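Dig into what follows:
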Amino acid sequence: MEEMAVAGTVPSTDSNRTGMKSLVVQILTGRWLMVFAAILVMFAAASATSMFGLYSNALKSSLGYDQTTLNLLGFFKDLGANVGVISGLINEVTPPWVVLSMGAAMNLFGYLMIWLAVSRKIAKPHVWQMCLYICIGSNSQAFATTGALVTCVKNFPENRGAVLGILKGYQGALTGAIITQMYHAFYGDDAVALILFVAWLPAAISLAFLPAIRIMKVGQRRNELKVFYNFLYISLGLAGFLMIIIIVQKKFGFTQSQYGGSLAGVLFLLFLPLSLVVKEEFELWKMNKQEGLNGHSQLNIITEKLNTENTDEIDASSPPPSPPPVSAPATNSHNQKGNSWLSNVFRPPNRGEDYTILQALCSIDMFLLFLATICGVGGTLTAIDNLGQIGTSLGYPTDSLSTFISLMSIWNYLGRVVAGFASEIFLTKYKFPRPLMLALIQLLACAGHLLMAFNVHNALYLAWMIIGFCFGAQWPLLFAIISEIFGLKYYSTLYNFGSVASPIGSYLLNVRVAGYLYDKEAERQIAAAGSHRKPGEELTCIGPECFKLAFLIIAGVTFFGTLTTLILVLRTRKFYRTDIYKKFRE
């Protein structure tokens, strides 16, 4: 009897082990782990660019740069982070792990060279070399974003607004606040060590999640949007916790060990979405297992019967094969193909269908969207890149600069998730076009620039919240509009082309306007004091006049961008009144 009992338990134990093994495989290969992996990859990839305002002063003092030179570095940082056309083209023909691996290598090389230069472990590089290093390092962000975000959008096409809101919310938005906590917990106030930290962290995370991020052909489940809402709630909890921690740290001041305690809570909330991954994949595993037990034999019988009937019908009723059609002369066919290719570039399909790359790039809709992004994103990005110098010129202490970065990061996050989820709800329920929401966001940004220009008493914190919110909100709207108007077939390339507008706006407004006017005012102050600047000495400006004229100009440019977006609203109003997701449900 004992032998029979023992023998009876063996199959049960083996079955349990097989079930657990299949569950683990389900979790590791499922779409929800891919979403979590994409969140971490994009969060880490933006760490160096989002923290530029914190380590820019170390660059300026260690290498003896003036503001124009520092803003030139900021421009190449933005150029690298946003010009991802090459990564998009590579991703069109390779799996996502290729661009993710390339991005990891570029990040490590670029920022490691910057750390070596700032820590003076190598000879002082030329300015063009520093521009090259920071461009290569920041371009890794475009590679990581292409591999992670584009893959998620293609795997969840009917929930692209929610996908973009969540992923872009973590990337660059919460990144700044979280990395600030890590920075103070690990390194205190050592900005040079921060550069080394942002060199290895993104590379390590990208390489760790290479197998998880890939294209999956899986049908939609009914509760997909509900799961994304759960991701949203956790991220809102993380943002709220960060906001409370920032206020407490600002009021009482934290030691390095106290920062370590707050970081533990931040990391817990950062990895909490793993519980959602396990829960959703477990439910899917149970459902697949039940369907396999109930319907496997019946499915085989029906399939075999249908195959037999179809074979008999084809044998009995199929007509004899028709002769092949006579082809036209090769020369005429070739000429017709060439003329067709040229004409198709300027004869795009209906909005929402799959445009070719050239059809999209040559369209008026893309031109309007590109111009509006130059004005809107370029202005907010100029404010963010000059955060350290704005705070210093207005007399704020160093700890306030960290507070500005954290506040701006959290409101940047809120802008991204609100724009992503709210635009999805308004679009599906009320047919509210996304371009109109983009225009309203740009109009709000004008108010933030004006607050910055006039240095309204105690309003700088409000200005940073507005600018952070508007900067974040524009990204998911831009990328969703591109995917909706021009289709998903070449989304990897078109998505990255839309990002190119950001560094163009940054160069025009940051380098040519803000940097130039800042240096001009600083030189005026030096001349008024009866002194002169020594070679290699940093150029510092003090007072509200340093950025006043620059932000008045930026406010005007942003308003022009708002008008441009309204033209796009008028052109696409009929398209957004239709069911733009209908083809994904057929």
Remarks:
- The mean pLDDT is 84.
- Residues 37 and 209 are 6 Å apart (CA to CA).
- Residues 273-317 form the longest helix (45 residues).
